[in-house]
Amino acid sequence: MIRVGIVGGTGYTGSELLRILAGHPRVSLAAITSRGEAGQTVADLFPHLRGRVDLKFSEPDVGLLGECDLVFFATPNGTAMKMAPDLLERGAKVIDLAADFRLKDPAIWNRWYQMPHACPELLAEAVYGLPEVNRAAIREARLVANPGCYPTAVTLGFLPLLEQGWIDPGWLVADAKSGVSGAGRKASVGMLMAEVGESFKAYAVAGHRHQPEIFQNLSGVAGPGLRLTFVPHLLPMIRGIEATLYARLQGPDLDLQSAYEARYGAEPFVDVMPAGSHPETRSVRGCNSCRIAVAEPLGEGIVVVQSVIDNLVKGAAGQAVQNMNLMFGLDETEALGALALLP
Amino acid sequence: MIRVGIVGGTGYTGSELLRILAGHPRVSLAAITSRGEAGQTVADLFPHLRGRVDLKFSEPDVGLLGECDLVFFATPNGTAMKMAPDLLERGAKVIDLAADFRLKDPAIWNRWYQMPHACPELLAEAVYGLPEVNRAAIREARLVANPGCYPTAVTLGFLPLLEQGWIDPGWLVADAKSGVSGAGRKASVGMLMAEVGESFKAYAVAGHRHQPEIFQNLSGVAGPGLRLTFVPHLLPMIRGIEATLYARLQGPDLDLQSAYEARYGAEPFVDVMPAGSHPETRSVRGCNSCRIAVAEPLGEGIVVVQSVIDNLVKGAAGQAVQNMNLMFGLDETEALGALALLP
Amino acid sequence: MIRVGIVGGTGYTGSELLRILAGHPRVSLAAITSRGEAGQTVADLFPHLRGRVDLKFSEPDVGLLGECDLVFFATPNGTAMKMAPDLLERGAKVIDLAADFRLKDPAIWNRWYQMPHACPELLAEAVYGLPEVNRAAIREARLVANPGCYPTAVTLGFLPLLEQGWIDPGWLVADAKSGVSGAGRKASVGMLMAEVGESFKAYAVAGHRHQPEIFQNLSGVAGPGLRLTFVPHLLPMIRGIEATLYARLQGPDLDLQSAYEARYGAEPFVDVMPAGSHPETRSVRGCNSCRIAVAEPLGEGIVVVQSVIDNLVKGAAGQAVQNMNLMFGLDETEALGALALLP
Amino acid sequence: MIRVGIVGGTGYTGSELLRILAGHPRVSLAAITSRGEAGQTVADLFPHLRGRVDLKFSEPDVGLLGECDLVFFATPNGTAMKMAPDLLERGAKVIDLAADFRLKDPAIWNRWYQMPHACPELLAEAVYGLPEVNRAAIREARLVANPGCYPTAVTLGFLPLLEQGWIDPGWLVADAKSGVSGAGRKASVGMLMAEVGESFKAYAVAGHRHQPEIFQNLSGVAGPGLRLTFVPHLLPMIRGIEATLYARLQGPDLDLQSAYEARYGAEPFVDVMPAGSHPETRSVRGCNSCRIAVAEPLGEGIVVVQSVIDNLVKGAAGQAVQNMNLMFGLDETEALGALALLP
């Protein structure tokens, strides 16, 4: 059994980790920490886990966590980078679901997250945990940076086009929409149901932290000269991300459908839908899949890609478990077989 | 492997059966029928089943269905009663998720469902599939009437009180609320999102078909003299039923909490929550549990029971699979271990 | 022009007052206060008021407010009672939308609101602002206690039955459901959309502060011996309250429909719907009406009343403006003519 | 008083016309027709109009309608073009809220709406009823084609940029999102709340009927060479459209904010929000405004415009009344002063 610790278990990514890991036959939950809720039973906070998760929240303790085989960080940005070096030294592997190890350049980290990086020496070693791109490296990794939710949907959507060199990298548009669970489980006026229900808006138009992460992912394929406009929006629903991607095709008669099917045919968690499809976020609600459709409307040379994920699963906790499975030599799909809950 | 057929697979109870049975290690899906969609791939209609359910919808055929070990009817009321006798004769067992075999008295059936019963001779044999009441009989049954969604929530809620004789049966009130999936997957103006979203109302105040079913259940325990006021309401959400039940206590100093815990302590799918709890429908979303809380507000002699289920799971397809497990001697919880999807 | 001040303008009742009063031809807005937002433009916080409300929030100042003809308190409980005596002395009239002056007995206030009353000497003078009951007194009042949202819906629903003496006052049940705006506009985890969307639950089953208020209202008609079970629930929507009321009829052949129509026929803001109706909350969204239907299901001697209001309008700001109109001798319906926004 | 008839009054645009016109001091409703509901009281179908609209639905009758000063068509596409010639000849003016008179080229109509045009000779005379573009012509018009909902939001969003010649017309992207009321009030499985609630998707990616309408609007300003990618999406909410628009700026140092403020400063129903704003659909819920924000994220030469309207008001019935006011020489804002209903 893999001994697992979770730091920061009171948010939505933490509770999703618990939900998924509670059904994992090779995992034993050793500790789940929360400064604010230490001493409280997990099932009191999350009644859907009653009878299946018996742990109590505990104070984060590096000694105890260091005895785990793997520690997940489901914490705010800036927490994992302070504890990870110590845990790695004690022999634990680390998967950070926050952004601490996603950006390779500490100056860019500093600019977007407004704090110096606590362990820039680990950034080169950290593996960006998108299995569809970095599977081999993840298998060998001690430290995995679990991708952001928007970056997962957008990167998987653009990837085949950039790998083929079929689109002009000079003007990529990603119009992305997320359910409210992406904002986390913390008190705020702005995310009250009375504020965000029955309404829709863009946000962070001037610049969102996932922009440099997506930029890094896509530039890694396309090389220099990439220009990306990324606009996130807030949906009046709980789970799900849809990204509609726009780019200019570099040539006529490109077989978009076949290229996507070839690229993702062997992927267990990317589903290229038939031509003409409109993937719905509910078709991945609670499951670890990314569903994608690609089209060229009216034959005008603009490609439109639709990409949907559950932001808490393939966009967070599910992908983290997928990475764990790879890091520990397990079947990549272990505990991730749940079908979407529809309707 | 148990060969299973599903008649009427294009509705929500049908698709939930597929979702749950796709994960059942002892079941092979032999046929799923739909007159309207015959020939179409199941995954085209239900994209969340892509890659996991390879069947096509077929015309209902008694010969083929009769070769199944078990046939589920996920059809409108009045369909199963026409085909069940033939199927039973061919050796298949039958679970009807509609109302055809729930009411013991064909006159009451006729009054509430406005059609004569096609096989009243089977009503005595049919077992009402509420395992918490009829477990032993279900194990032996050929024909199971799967309970209605409201009746499941209300019956489980009132049951311990009536069994103890602690409440006046002369005035029971059940104020029940259901998500819109309870109305099924059929075209209607009244269930458009623009009609039922962001609004709430009672319906069928003059009399709802689940009233006689609940009445039959409760009278079976309380005997004559029962009087039940049942008012259903429509919630602006998709899944979930909450029933708030009111009755007059027959004595002081009754240990309500202990009575509920004792009654349901061994039940795998009924969870009596701690005193003071307010069960949320989301705590059972997608899972087969009924969560219950009991209280006596302000010590005034009125008991208030809260009971929540997912109308499509414990209120329909999940309970049907629970019944199947019992009928075929399997572990009652097989394929029903999914935790609720929260948030 | 009536000079109006609003204390506590950053919540939903405050912004509703602004929305309604912006269209009132006899009102000039003199001041709107908020300690937290002092100096900020109202339209920055409430973009729907852009171009129509030019005020800035200011610190509450008794001197300035005392020069108003009328001061509305849209503040948390316990605020108005501290400022009202001073304002009344300066000649301003006061309408409190919170609970400070609703309960006549300061001991009951203390028990339910957990603070001593700051000016119990005003409780006798304060008029409970339910025009359908106290119209004449409101016209003469200096100090009006605007009713709570649940109490408005429940009281108007039970009133004709109690006035007629047609129901047993010994067991009244009010099963009430409210949209999330009833919880106000303040940061909290519990009211995040990810927590309350797509879910439903009862709350405060052990006792809610509106219970004694409703009790006082109904006892005022029924006399001693009243027993009321009141259970509020939280709806996954923004605006609207529905209350389903249950009581035992004291006799046969009561003409319920006619009694309600007679009682409310002259009321501009109570609409008795035709027999057999199911009033929807959306039919009063944004408007000052209470719509009511009454029925006796299955002829079993139990009366069921459905009562719907918009909790922010007839349940708060709209009723407050109705009271203002009465206090200042205006047409009671002035500025309250908006039709519901449906769908 | 202007005598008004409405053809097709049972949908959402029809009921919105009724809601708005019920408060118009210069309008008398003469007839509202519906083949399906003829004889039924309007208030039975639309309870929010109880007490304010006393009409019954009637069969459409050209004779009666021809006596009106103005006839609104709130009908499916293809209806108005059959009746308009006759009504115009009888002296009535006509505003069509459907698409019949929007496209100037009958061949393009035929291609997108799959039916020949019944009166192509009227297309040249018909005025496209976007007051911000065609105010003078609308004042003189007998026949107005009320714009589509998406075209209103997208056209107003792009207009200042194209008028200034500041963007490359060769690649415009409009990523638009609409609430479900845009699909109308007709029975369908696809628009059930259980199908579209808590989910999000693009639709009609291959080509939507509003694409040629927007294209015609923008080409009218930009001239030849325009290329527009328009992708509509379905939001899990009832009212509101948000369009996020992307284009390549043709030069540096363009004062976007000032250009928008100058273009729309005198417009009563277009509100250019301060720089850095994120307009929310709820800020225009139930009101006739279009709110717009413009930005150039990260200074990279791509302009992003956000434009929000209520699809049923500025996107349909409100704009139709605005056009009526212009056609009859009234104050353009008459009956359109309602503030948005927020929250």
Please state the CA-atom Rg of chain A, rounded to the nearest Å: 20 Å
Our count of helices of chain A gives 11
Tell me the strand order in the biggest sheet of chain A.
3-2-1-4-5-7-6
In helices, the fraction of residues of chain A equals 25-40%
DSSP strand content of chain A: 15-25%
The N- and C-terminal alpha carbons of chain A lie at a distance of: 35 Å
Question: CATH-wise, what's the superfamily of the largest domain in chain A?
Answer: Dihydrodipicolinate Reductase, domain 2
Uncertain spans of chain A, ≥5 residues at pLDDT below 50? none
- Largest interface between protein chains, with number of residues from each side: B-C, 51 and 51 residues
Q: Could you say which structural class the secondary elements and strand pairing of chain A correspond to?
A: alpha/beta
The CATH architecture designation of the largest domain in chain A is 2-Layer Sandwich
Predict the CATH topology of the largest domain in chain A: Dihydrodipicolinate Reductase, domain 2
Oligomer: homotetramer
The global form of chain A is globular
Highest-level CATH class of the largest domain in chain A: Alpha Beta
Mean pLDDT of chain A: 97
What is the number of domains of chain A?
A: 2
Order of helices and strands of chain A: EHEHEHEHEHEHEHEHEHEEHEEEH
Quick one: biggest sheet of chain A? 7 strands, parallel
